[in-house]
Design a protein that fits this description.
Layout (H helix, E strand, L loop, with lengths): L2 H16 L2 H7 L1 E2 L7 H10 L5 E3 L16 H14 L7 E4 L12 H6 L3 H17 L4 E2 L23 H16 L12 E5 L18 H8 L1 H8 L4 E4 L3 E2 L2 E2 L4 H11 L5 E3 L7 H5 L5 H11 L4 E2 L3 H12 L4 H17 L16 H14 L1 E5 L11 E4 L7 H4 L14 H9 L3 E3 L12 H4 L3 E7 L18 H11 L4 E7 L7 H4 L4 E4 L7 H9 L65 E3 L3 E2 L3 E2 L1 H5 L4 E9 L5 E11 L10 E10 L4 E8 L1 H4 L1 E2 L5 E2 L3 E8 L7 E6 L1
Parallel strand pairs: 1-10, 2-3, 3-4, 5-6, 6-9, 12-13, 12-14, 14-15, 15-16, 19-27
Antiparallel strand pairs: 7-8, 11-16, 17-20, 18-20, 20-23, 21-22, 21-26, 24-25, 26-27
The protein binds beta-D-glucopyranose.
Amino acid sequence: MNTMTDDVKVRVEKIISKMSLRAKIGQLNQPETPVGSEAEEFKNAVRRGEIGSVLMSVGATAGNDAQGEINVDFYNELQRIAVEESPDGIPILFGRDVIHGHKTVFPIPLAMAASFNPELVGKCYRDIAVEATNDGIHWTFTPMLDLCRDPRWGRIIEGPGEDPYVGAAIARAIVGGVQGDDISKSDSMLACAKHFIGYGASEGGRDYHRTEISDYSLYNYYLPAFRAAVKAGALTVMSSFNDVNGQPVTSSKKYLTDILRDKAGFDGFVVSDYDAVTQLIKQGVAETPEQCAALSINAGLDMDMHDRCYIDYLENAVKSGTVSEAVIDEAVRRVLTVKIKAGLFEHPFAERKELDRTSHLADARALATESAVLLKNEGVLPIAKSAKVGLIGPFANERRSLLGSWTLDGKAEETPTLAEEMRKAAGDKLNVINSSTLAWDSTNKNIAASDVVVLAIGESWTATGESRAVSDITISADQKALIKKAKTYGKKTVGVIFCGRPIAMEEISGDLDAVVYVWHAGSEAAGAVSDILFGVSSPSGRLPVTLPRRATHIPLYYNVTSSGRPVDCYYGENPGNCYVDSMPVPCYPFGFGLTYTEFEYSAPVCESDKISLSDLEAGKRITVSADVKNTGAVTAKETVQLYIRDVCASLMRPMRELKGFKKTQIASGGTVKVSFDIGYDDLGFYDESGNYVVEKGKIKLFIGKNCLTENQTEIEII
Ligand code: BGC
């Protein structure tokens, strides 16, 4: 018996017992911040108890539009009205998209995943929560956990990439950081796992499009990150815009209740995505807004974001009998439970104290450093102290794009440029060539005088994010030409790639002597990149997504099953046999990343080559380890990765599945034994009904640097 839960229940029932139907529905209503003259009527609606939550932004794609500074006084005034003048005195829950930073901007979430350092990610989200709650934000719409295999999708930047194991690790880190160790504290913020579910599978990477996801794929690929978020204590979930196999998730009892609640154990509340309830008409499953409201609430969708469908139509739906008041009570119960658990009744108001963000900026720099992935290095990095460096390209003096999409509160003008940060490190050995075009000619003295040319290239933040899919995932033609031109000087060239998504690298990687993929890495991106270029830090990021050669090879991801035929599209096997005109092997595989030293792996050793299924079921684990030696001259971090392959199962299993990773610093010349304990949870899979099964038979265990590792041993489950 949990007394805290019982107390909460008693409080909730006491409140509900006095509420009118209208006030109950008000708790399920989340309008956005009013603009201009709308404010007075908005206050009256709060007074009438019609507003349970406020979306602290304006517009359907908040991450793409400039959002004003948070007006704390206005929100506090709304809260005062709610607490003092509304019929039940229930405080408003203020929610905002604090996706990868508040005032301090951290790397985009895809880059955070590339750090393979969940502990640091969690620490950064703690910083984020401290900043955001200081401005009165109780609830953030993160983590975004949409597994994605299509880099054309603009929203790939917001998620953890293509792998369910990484997704789950990131989910735990973000929920833990945002909600803190005690969700009722005033600097803890509610997390919202989104977008449930399958949004990242939108056809062709076209935002909001339909998806086809078998139950087998759903349970094994798309659901694990959400399960992890729920297990980590996420108290809210946002449903996704898309349909899965013809069922809009917004109105799907299968997804919102049977799978999310019954299978994954979620007991918080579900909020819709923006206007998604009335969208059911356009999706063709409802004809009237009242039907939309009824379908959604009956499916298990508790709160309606923005479109007023619940507040305007649910009362009638109750009168006409399509929705029972008990269903509404249940939704209200969930919302109130979360409000109470979050301590909202105890600290409803924003205090906005002066915050010293120095340590947050340091964490942002650490995470930006750990997110950068060194893809190629032919004797050029780190840049020697004596070298003269030419810096050119559209990102040399760029500020805003460094912050990435979904930056509602960070300021571009406070963000240092790469030129500024490299100047600090290199002084007058740096020549900034202030041209992002081809205007510079072959007699350009600055280039001619340089030993190394750094090309700061990539994609604008405006090419990423919501409703910003692209069909061409290469960098722009003028930047490709810039790389070719730099090559003609016969200098060493370093490509520093500021991108939000995986880009097709085939055309450019051959012309660059070194490539560092630095993403849109936030407020401290430039400092982190400068540190890496000059060897102040060693790169340690790894790819959480495959980098394809060409867009025509999409989808290209590592954890696929075997076709069983010689013509096999798995990217690590039978290269060239799949398409007759090009090789679908990736430019850089999942898990890949270099640093300024080399690591040598011993063969993995398992403490036993057999383990019984009954022992596994009873909780026994088995240890597999490998010795990893740093054979170079530089101390650096290695991300040691554990993959498995279930050789023969009742359903086909992927040729490699990530089941563990450990980021470990290894001194030059040193050797570290890296061990993984694997157990029941790691060795099975979900069948089509969502039941987790571990089967007897052989399992290959691989320990290596990336998904292509062949460094293996085998165990048998008997
Ligand atoms: C996005 C969500 C976001 C919401 C509120 C929607 O358009 O899909 O991710 O949280 O808007 O801004």
